[in-house]
Design a protein that fits this description.
Helices cover about 60% and strands about 5% of the residues. The protein has about 850 residues and is mainly α. Strand 6 and strand 7 form a beta hairpin. It is elongated, with a radius of gyration of 41 Å.
Length: about 850
């Protein structure tokens, strides 16, 4: 159009020059737009804006006026000034490269590897755009070498003086390390030239040619339209990648696909299900063990990522079963290919064009990965799923049936680590072996022997002939003690508990281990009760049942306190600690056993102190005493409705000498049906009540007798004469009864004690009132302080481990109080021996 207005110019030469200038400028603008349309990077969008802004200066006028000099442009200087403001696209790109290099230098000054990594990615894109078919900037080579040197210095400092980096810096450093290593190989000639003589390299006129980098061809990752139809599945569908191109799955493209999937992991708007489908197809075309292992490890991680972003949602059932199946396939490949191993800390393979081979002089091809982490995650996801399902539905039973397959997977993982541990050159950490062994034991220690036998038989069917058992540590010992106690091996369980010395260090363990310790302690107490060892059972169960927080200490529920100030984060953590329903210990049965044992010990003691005021009063179970006092204050007492009512009424009957009525109350408790050998338990309780009834009768009515026939007592309590004589002899030897046993006449001769003076009686009364006042104050303090701390951090002053140290004479106790000046550990109870220790010493 400019030729129609050429006559308006004062100089045809200047007009032609101006036309040539703007024609070149428009041509560069068109080329730049064509190049920018093929790029997806945000920094190239900025290039478009900057070019359009510069061109808008010349587009301010419309029509023919844009090619004419304005009225205000009277001199050639204004034209020259306008020409100088125009930059070519190439110059702009070089300027952007320099700005990015400066940003990298700023990141190096403050050691910010996160920003260095992002800026380095940007620099690579800019340099590649300049060097497409032309030249590579020398300043890029210089920046690459300087960044590599700085990276090596940082890594060397970390080795000499280890200092923990934050997560962002660590990720950035690792990303830069991998990228620099790969890019340096592509430009090895230029890098060597720069290092040989920096000045000569930078001053040379000829730019170093860009190395030929292999680009993805349609046969690598994508198919062209002619072969897309052949790649379609049976239903006529194909998988599309970026830009709507059809993805091709071949053994040669597996590593490239995996690289892209790993780089997109954790990014927003990533379709994880689509990635899983792609990896499933890659697994089908994998033709070597290495490729299969790489795909399986990435595939299992992707399945776990489906539930990684939430603490409440559980892993989909079909994905859990698929992950379990993938791990089984992984173990099968490792079993068939002994020269391939999956091990933590192995070096990543960077070359995506060809898979690695076994290096010369080595026995194994190492694949980076952590099998124990996958097994633990699979186990945790099953636990979370069981926690979210109503245990009283058939869905819970169906989900629980997957535990058998999980146990087989854990067992195979344990055998695999033990196989690797035999080779001393691999230096497998013992912690990995212990972790997976512990997972196995946690699935069997609470089960009956018949169920464990089935699990073990199924697990050993596919095990190799040379497989052996693993090593057991602290948690494993607790599991073994629990198992022995569950099967009525009380003395073995007691001896192992005492010899383990876990009671001295349990506060140093994590919360889950302390929960396991509490469960083991309870099971030992229940075992002692089934053996008829009432005193041992009561002292052992006192640790848990006496606290009044059985649910929390056994991780079977969270008790809501009146003054609770638990944060949402603490509440979430406590819920995560809860055990699945099938692992629970019946709390009603536990309370019934504890109260029954307390009754058999407290009722004779109350009778003894009631008839002998001079005897120092002591309390075996404060919890039982409070319940009994509350029950006695009731104006009207109806028929027993629950376990607690049955025990309280049995206690009153036993105290009144009605031992048969007491037996009926105890036998009518329905919870005994949950224990093995119910009839044996009831027979044992009848015998215990008869004996304690005899003791109670003697303590109560001894002041009113001078002599009493053994045969009369035997008839009253339906015991043998020898048994009655043995009980009386034991009471006399322990100085519980002021009497003598005449074996010739088979009679008990009672000795009258000295009557107390009025002053002594008043002093005893004052002592009783002071003790009652102290107990009231302690109870009030306990009520006020409840709920002010975490459920696993609260410890009462009356319990062992409070400010006074408690039973055992130690100030440490459960919560780490007393002499322990360090931070208190959550959960768990100390086991200082108590009745178990006394039983061994006795």
């Amino acid at each position: 159009m400019s030729k129609f207005f050429a006559g308006g110019d004062s100089s045809s030469e200047s007009s032609s020059d101006e036309e040539e200038l703007y024609s070149e400028e428009e041509e560069e603008k068109v080329q730049g737009q064509a190049e920018d349309s093929s790029e997806e990077d945000s920094d190239e969008d900025d290039d478009d804006e900057s070019e359009e802004d510069s061109d808008d200066e010349g587009a301010g006028k419309t029509g023919a006026s844009r090619f004419l000099r304005g009225d205000s442009s009277d001199s050639e200087d204004s034209d020259e000034e306008r020409v100088k403001t125009v930059k070519s696209a190439k110059d702009k790109r070089f300027g952007e490269v320099e700005a990015t290099i400066k940003a990298i230098d700023n990141g190096r000054k403050i050691n910010d590897w996160g920003s260095i990594s992002s800026e380095f990615d940007k620099l690579n894109r800019q340099a590649a755009k300049i060097g497409e078919g032309k030249q590579i900037p020398k300043i890029y080579i210089k920046a690459l070498v300087e960044l590599e040197e700085f990276m090596n210095e940082t890594i060397a400092k970390q080795k000499v003086t280890p200092k923990k980096m934050n997560a962002t810096n660590a990720r950035g450093l690792n990303a830069v390390k991998q990228k620099v290593k790969k890019i340096t190989k592509d430009y090895q000639d230029q890098v060597d030239s720069f290092r040989k003589d920096e000045d000569a390299f930078m001053e040379s006129e000829d730019e170093a040619p860009t190395p030929k980098v292999k680009k993805s061809k349609p046969t690598d990752l994508y198919l062209d339209e002619t072969t897309a139809a052949e790649a379609a599945d049976d239903d006529g569908f194909v998988t599309l990648g970026k830009g709507g191109k059809v993805l091709q799955f071949t053994p040669e493209s597996i590593l490239k696909h995996l690289r892209g999937i790993l780089e997109s992991r954790g990014k927003k708007n990533t379709d994880r299900l689509e990635q899983i489908k792609i990896m499933e197809k890659l697994l089908e075309v994998a033709n070597t063990p290495y490729l299969s292992l790489r795909v399986l490890l990435t595939l299992v991680s992707a399945r776990f990522d489906l539930s990684a972003g939430s603490t409440t949602s559980t892993m989909p059932l079909e994905q859990w079963k698929a992950a379990e199946k993938d791990l089984q396939t992984l173990f099968e490949i490792l079993e068939k290919n002994k020269d391939h191993i999956v091990i933590e800390g192995a070096e990543e393979w960077e070359d995506d064009d060809k898979p690695p081979t076994v290096p010369e002089g080595e026995k194994y091809l190492k694949v980076p990965g952590s099998i124990v982490s996958y097994v633990e995650r699979l186990d945790d996801e099953l636990t979370r799923s069981l926690q979210a399902i109503d245990p009283h539905t058939s869905e819970y039973i169906e989900r629980l049936s997957d535990e058998g397959n999980l146990y087989n997977t854990i067992f195979q993982g344990m055998l695999y680590y033990e196989h690797l541990q035999k080779d001393s050159e691999l230096q497998i950490p013992q912690d990995s072996v212990n972790r997976i062994v512990m997972r196995r034991l946690e699935h069997v220690y609470f089960k009956p022997a018949s169920v464990v036998k089935i699990l073990e038989e199924n697990a050993w069917k596919n095990a190799p002939a040379d497989a052996v058992e693993g090593i057991i540590r602290a948690r494993a010992m607790l599991c073994q003690i629990y198992f022995l106690a569950l099967h009525d091996e009380y003395y073995k369980a007691r001896d192992m508990m005492l010899m383990s010395h876990l009671q001295e260090s349990i506060n140093n363990f994590d919360v889950l281990t302390q929960i396991l310790y509490n469960r083991t302690l309870v099971q030992v107490g229940l075992c002692a009760f089934r053996k008829g060892l009432v005193y041992d059972a009561q002292n052992t169960l006192q640790e848990i049942c006496g606290s009044g927080r059985q649910k929390e200490l056994l991780a079977q529920g969270v008790m809501i306190q009146r003054y609770s100030q638990v944060s949402p984060e603490q509440e979430r953590l406590e819920k995560q600690r809860q055990l699945p329903f099938h692992m629970h210990i019946n709390l009603e049965l536990l309370e019934c056993v504890y109260l029954t044992c307390s009754m058999l010990l407290e009722i004779p003691l109350l009778a003894q102190t009631g008839s002998s005021p001079d005897i120092k009063k002591r309390v075996i179970s404060k919890t039982y005493r409070r319940m009994l006092e509350y029950h006695e204050r009731q104006i009207f007492t109806g028929p027993p409705e629950n376990t607690r009512d049955h025990v309280m009424q049995a206690s009153r009957a036993l105290a009144a000498g009605e031992w048969k009525k007491s037996i009926n109350f105890v036998h009518s408790i329905k919870i005994w049906d949950l224990m093995p050998d119910t009839e044996g338990i009831k027979t044992m309780l009848s015998k215990q009540i008869q004996e304690e009834g005899l003791r109670t009768y003697l303590f109560t009515y001894a002041p009113f007798y001078d002599t009493l026939s053994v045969s009369t007592l035997a008839t009253m309590f339906e015991l043998e004469d020898r048994k009655v004589a043995a009980i009386i002899s034991k009471m006399i030897s322990h100085e519980e009864l002021a009497a003598a046993l005449d074996q010739v006449s088979a009679t008990v001769i009672f000795r009258k004690g000295v009557e107390l003076s009025r002053l002594q009686s008043l002093a005893l009364t004052l002592s009783d009132k002071a003790a009652a006042l102290i107990e009231t104050n302690e109870r009030t303090l306990e009520q006020r302080t409840q709920g002010t701390a975490n459920a696993f951090d609260r410890r009462g002053a009356n319990q062992r481990g409070g400010h006074r140290g408690g039973r055992g004479g130690r100030g440490g106790g459960r919560g780490g109080g007393g002499g322990n000046t360090g931070p208190r550990q959550a959960g768990g109870t100390q086991f200082t021996g108590g009745a178990l220790g006394a039983a061994v010493r006795g």
